[in-house]
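ugh ok so i messed up the first submission bc i forgot one of the chains. this is the corrected input, ALL of the components this time, i swear. 578 residues overall. if the numbers dont match what u have on ur side tell me asap before i send this to the collaborators (the ones from the other lab, u know who)
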Amino acid sequence: MSYPVDAPPLRQGMNAVVLALKGLRHRPGAVRPEQLPGMAAWAQFHGVRLEVNYRSE
Amino acid sequence: MTDPRPKGRRRLATSFTLGAGICLALAGMLSCSGPVPDPRANWSDAKKARVEAAARQRRIIFNDDSYELSRDDAGTPEGFLKRRLQPLAGTQVDTISWSILGGWADAPVYDSKIQPIYGDAHGGPPAYWSKVTANVKRLIQSGRGPLQIVIDFARSHGMEILASVRMNDVHDSFIGGGLTTWKKEHPEFLVDPLGRLTSLDLYVTSQDFSHPEVRQRKFEIIEEVARRYDVDGFELDFIRHPVFFSPTMQGKPVSADQVEVMTAFMRRIRKLTDSQAERRGRPLLLATRVPDSFRLALNIGLDLKGWLEEDLVDILIAGGGYAPFSLPLAEFTSAAHPHGVLVYPCINQSAANNVSGGRFLEGVRGMASNWFRTGADGVYLWNLGTPFEYKTGQDLVETRRRSYACLSDIGEPGTLAARNKLFCVDNHTGGVIDYYAHISSHRPLPVSREGAIKYGVVGRVPLVVGDDLASAKENGSLDSMRLVLDVRSAARPDAVVCRVNGKDWPADNRRSSTPARASIG
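and heres the new structure output, hopefully the right one now
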């Protein structure tokens, strides 16, 4: 998935990228996805890339 | 002495060194009454001559593993040069570092008089790169061996030429026919494989540098080339391959005595090259390709801090290139520059291609941008020509076009400006890269390595951007930016939250994409 981003908040130097799964509504007593067999790695963040495109190219 | 640099160009290192000296002087004026002595005042004449020689224009160092000697038509200089080296003319490559011990199998591919050449050293040509032996002999018989041909080519194009020495190549542990007769006859000179980590199986044929006989094998090659060939210096490649003592096989740091063995070896090499430099009236530089940090280097026996303090190196090639966006380059530049030592971070073709999802050109531009911002003096390219292997015709032409596209702009900040780039976070993908984990920086991704990403659990990763995005936006040169996430196994992609420097990116800005993936070769 990709996000169009801007400067700021992106800046020259070190940037902090935080990735998370937002808290979906959880019904009491329901089994959460990561508790299901085989679903321990419910989501994995494998890559983060910033594409910077200039007008001159 | 004439300045070999093009008019108007200032070497970053020289200006940095001078700048550092000025800063020291200013600090001294502010903090005490006496002037701070110029550290260069204590440099030997040999050191001054080497620093002067090292200050030539050197935007890109191109390491060539010598594969082209295996082509059908490599028995002539034209056939040998035409595919990989000839196309470097007119690019930003100012230095060729040519592997005099071949691309694997630890034997000379020049007309050595002291060790048998590739093929002869193995009791017959190995099946892999099988034509190297015959072509090397054919070139030698024609009057110019391969190394002399590369030297002549470099000179005719104003390039510098380094003889690259693979300090401990172990491709022979998994490619048939590559074990030299010497290794077969002297298993006692190899590292102890007992108790090794399974992730280090690759290194079972590493030579143990505790033995004087092992060190002599490398020393005599350097000595022979220094005496017989007009090279500008040597690259000592400690990344091919990075095991020199048995404790490394067990995942342990080597002992202080073993570190001293290696430092003494470096002293001996420096003494040799300086004496040969005096004989010929021209400096011989020493470049060393080393692990990703001083600590990782020390773990395997390479005391970089000591080398700098004792003037045992002129150019540090920083890293194996397996975690390029995580390389702590400032550690290298801040330690090396005050000693007049230049720093060239390593771009490793296959790893760079992987982390940039196959968009190699934009990815290496991002690396170079980050590194120049941290004081790099240029960049070093490893295995850029490897994808050409066994390719011919249009396939070769297209592969080379993709690989060499970066050679026109990644060598200096000016040509990198306003060029499309990728800035990435290094990921751990397994495969060949695992063999180099002990000399590589920590790769922050995938986050799942430290536990699956679950509800309420966040992953924080650093994203370093060398370009001045705010200025580019302000002056109108910036067209667009996209942050691309490779998220796998997500049953609910809409549940992914991304925050940059404290700002959430709204879900309705999100759109699907399929990040390209590449394997590591």
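quick check: Chain A touches chain B through 46 residues (CB under 8 Å). that seems consistent at least. The beta strands of chain A are 2-4, 13-21, 44-54.
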